[in-house]
């Protein structure tokens, strides 16, 4: 059996348990879309449970080829960004590691394509349809750089594309360790009464894993880290009415509607103008 890279964050026993659990999943009758919540957890045990759950789902979907989405939603300071992007067992790190390993072992052609989109109050123009729509139709995706550290020009506001190659002789888990801090270093943050570094933007990371066209289908993985909610603040603070807070709360509901439509097999285009939602539904 192929040995695991030394930086794999999961112990042998848990890896075997996850393999056993995902083998029992019958994806033949399951919908191709999946939508699951991630919750921030301050305690190590809670974070670990969440990570194992996500890891099992990711392993199954990478293997079988389909679309899956995770969203981290909750108050500021509850660990959403840590569990989604920054932690050793973060969903993004696991997704990149599993996808690169699958490409390398199966000899899948092409690159692992990653779209990173940041939405915040200074965004000009409407929010576009969720990135998974472009990832599924690769002919309509933008050109992208083969250098993972040099992104192309953004094709929509706040959107950056990267491409990672699966190569022999490298540790796929360390790719995420190097890539993610660089990709996230410019994210908009601010100090609030709930958190020293509260995310003031919604961040979406979409991964497209190409299939070989014969034995495996394309797989798309999306993870959404919503800006920290201020619902736990005192009334006079959270109703101060500034543009940033208004955007965060109004767009949060719009994005969650998009994700629920994604899970139902629909694509939703949502206008970002606060208080002026406009939805366009179309079957996938």
From TrEMBL:
PROSITE patterns: KINESIN_MOTOR_1 (PS00411). Keywords: ATP-binding, Nucleotide-binding. It comes from the Eukaryota. InterPro entries: Kinesin-like_fam, Kinesin_motor_CS, Kinesin_motor_dom, Kinesin_motor_dom_sf, P-loop_NTPase. GO terms for molecular function: ATP binding; ATP hydrolysis activity; microtubule binding; microtubule motor activity. Residues 1-276 form the Kinesin motor domain. Gene3D superfamilies: Kinesin motor domain (3.40.850.10). Residues 130-149 are annotated as: Disordered. Pfam families: Kinesin. GO terms for cellular component: kinesin complex; microtubule. One of its GO terms (biological process) is microtubule-based movement. This is Kinesin motor domain-containing protein.
């Amino acid at each position: 059996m192929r040995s695991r890279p030394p930086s794999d964050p999961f112990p042998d026993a848990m890896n075997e348990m996850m393999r056993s659990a995902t083998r029992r999943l019958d994806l033949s009758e399951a919908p191709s879309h999946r939508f699951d919540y991630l919750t921030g957890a301050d305690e190590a045990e809670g974070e670990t449970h969440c990570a194992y759950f996500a890891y099992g789902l990711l392993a199954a979907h990478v293997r079988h080829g389909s679309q899956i989405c995770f969203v981290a939603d909750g108050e500021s300071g509850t660990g959403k960004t840590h569990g989604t992007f920054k932690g050793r067992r973060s969903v993004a790190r696991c997704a990149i590691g599993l996808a690169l390993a699958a490409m390398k072992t199966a000899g899948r052609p092409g690159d692992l394509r990653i779209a990173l989109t940041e939405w915040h109050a200074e965004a000009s123009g409407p929010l576009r349809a969720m990135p998974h729509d472009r990832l599924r139709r690769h002919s309509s995706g933008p050109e992208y750089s083969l250098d993972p550290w040099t992104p192309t020009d953004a094709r929509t506001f706040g959107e950056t594309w990267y491409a990672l190659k699966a190569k022999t002789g490298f540790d796929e888990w360390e790719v995420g360790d190097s890539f993610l801090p660089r990709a996230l270093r410019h994210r908009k943050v601010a100090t609030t009464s709930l958190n020293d570094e509260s995310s003031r933007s919604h961040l979406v990371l979409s991964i497209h894993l190409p299939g070989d066209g014969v034995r495996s289908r394309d797989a798309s993985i999306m993870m959404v880290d919503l800006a920290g909610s201020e619902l736990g603040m005192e009334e006079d603070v959270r109703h101060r009415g500034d543009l940033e807070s208004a955007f965060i709360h109004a767009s949060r509901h719009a994005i969650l509607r998009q994700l629920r439509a994604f899970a139902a097999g629909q694509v939703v285009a949502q206008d970002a103008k606060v208080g002026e939602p406009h939805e366009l539904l179309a079957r996938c």
